[in-house]
Design a protein that fits this description.
By secondary structure, the chain is of the alpha+beta class. The chain has two helices and five strands; from the N terminus they run ββααβββ. 39% of the residues lie in helices and 22% in strands. It has a three-stranded antiparallel β-sheet with strand order 3-4-5, with helices on one face. It is rod-shaped. The N and C termini lie far apart (107 Å).
Length: 164
């Protein structure tokens, strides 16, 4: 009689132990038991745990990257809003000093400083440099902050304003 894995077979009468009166009984085929061995279960469990640890590490890395991106976005928005307000202010008569430098409102500068301070160890630097070729200023806005592990970051933007 042929045997197959996972099937019960009838053993011939000759295979029975002596002293048995010719009865036959069903025996499992050697190595054909259905199910998983303990080793197979442990190996699959170990592979599953390694996968979960990898997924957990990816989630943590993604959260850290998202936090850094949020700070960069906030710094970019602050710098761009300062430049936009300065651009609008430059169109107003009397916005430039007699030497041709752009005059910024000290109240607005203080508000920008306070907004930059909401970033982790955030700071704001506004530089007004005179232009060489014409009367006017180059406004450079730099927003700096510290990320995780005390890593310094900064964002800078500049605009050129010519006096009328």
């Amino acid at each position: 009689m042929g045997s197959r894995r996972g099937r019960w077979v009838r053993w011939p009468r000759q295979a029975l132990a002596p002293g048995r009166s010719g009865q036959s009984r069903a025996l499992p085929v050697a190595g054909g038991a259905a199910g998983f061995t303990l080793v197979e279960v442990l190996v699959s469990l170990a592979i599953f745990v390694v996968g979960l640890v990898g997924i957990g590490a990816m989630v943590v890395t993604a959260q850290r990257a998202a936090a850094v991106d949020e700070m960069r976005t906030r710094a970019d928005l602050l710098a761009q809003s300062i430049l936009e307000e300065a651009t609008a202010a430059a169109r107003v008569p009397g916005a430039f000093t007699p030497l041709g430098a752009l005059a910024l409102d000290p109240v607005r500068v203080a508000a920008w400083q306070a907004e930059a301070a909401t970033l982790p160890r955030g700071s704001l630097r506004i530089l007004l440099d005179p232009l060489d070729d014409v009367r006017g200023s180059r406004l450079t806005v730099t927003v700096a902050w510290h990320g995780r592990g005390d890593t310094p970051f900064q964002f800078s933007a500049s605009e050129r304003f010519a006096a009328p």
